[in-house]
Specification:
6-stranded mixed β-sheet; 207 residues
């Protein structure tokens, strides 16, 4: 499996692309913008988009979703079962603020904590981590954690948007992410990767 990162959109959101050469399947986490760049990368690697995962419903993480679905209508959108409260409300998904127009979206497949979704010879495991938003999830694959805006390097996602809750976010990080081994790498929705150990020792929100 090949994992690629594209940094896209007005606030430099990380979009992660997974390419399984054996099956020819591709999956995307957080298609933040510029769907053409995402599709070109997938095509260059001889794969076809099958799965789109949303770590949460904020527009800077889903800005390229419409374009992807128009180009690949058979691709399925995976998001937490509470995502309708974010994706379905422009005021909550921030499309009116960060996009050109207000938009609403709907997941094809509703996820819950502990769900496992096969992908090629591997699988995505869902960890429910509310706090930044009510629908926040992290996804574990290949021993790596893709954590959206739940946690950043020595910081956490802001919680002053609708459905945000700082105490809930810190609790999610402490109970769902910190139990991982120190060496496990965390891939956030913005900025550079970090590790569980670095955050355990140096993240001021976890003290």
């Amino acid at each position: 499996m090949i994992i690629k990162r594209l940094i896209l959109g007005p606030v430099a959101t990380n979009c992660y692309i997974f390419l399984d050469e054996d099956s020819g399947e591709a999956a995307v986490i957080d298609p933040s913008a510029d769907h053409k760049s995402i599709l070109n990368l997938i095509k260059e690697n001889g794969c076809k988009l099958k799965k789109i995962f949303l770590t949460h419903g904020h527009y800077d993480h889903i800005g390229g979703l419409s374009g992807l679905l128009e180009a690949e209508p058979e691709a399925k959108v995976y998001a937490h079962e509470k995502s309708a409260e974010v994706l379905g409300e422009p005021r909550v998904n921030l499309s009116g603020e960060l996009g050109r127009k207000e938009e609403t979206f709907k997941a094809d497949i509703a996820l819950k904590d502990g769900d496992v979704i096969p992908f090629g010879n591997d699988e995505f495991k869902v960890i429910y981590t509310p706090g930044h938003t009510i629908d926040g999830i992290c996804l574990v694959i290949d021993g790596k954690v893709f954590c959206g805006d739940t946690i950043f390097r020595f910081s956490v996602g802001r919680t002053d948007f609708p459905t945000g809750d700082m105490s809930q976010e810190v609790q999610s990080i402490k109970t769902k992410l910190m139990p991982f081994d120190d060496s496990v790498r965390l891939y956030p929705g913005h900025g550079e990767p970090t590790t569980v150990g670095d955050e355990r020792r140096g993240n001021p929100y976890l003290r």
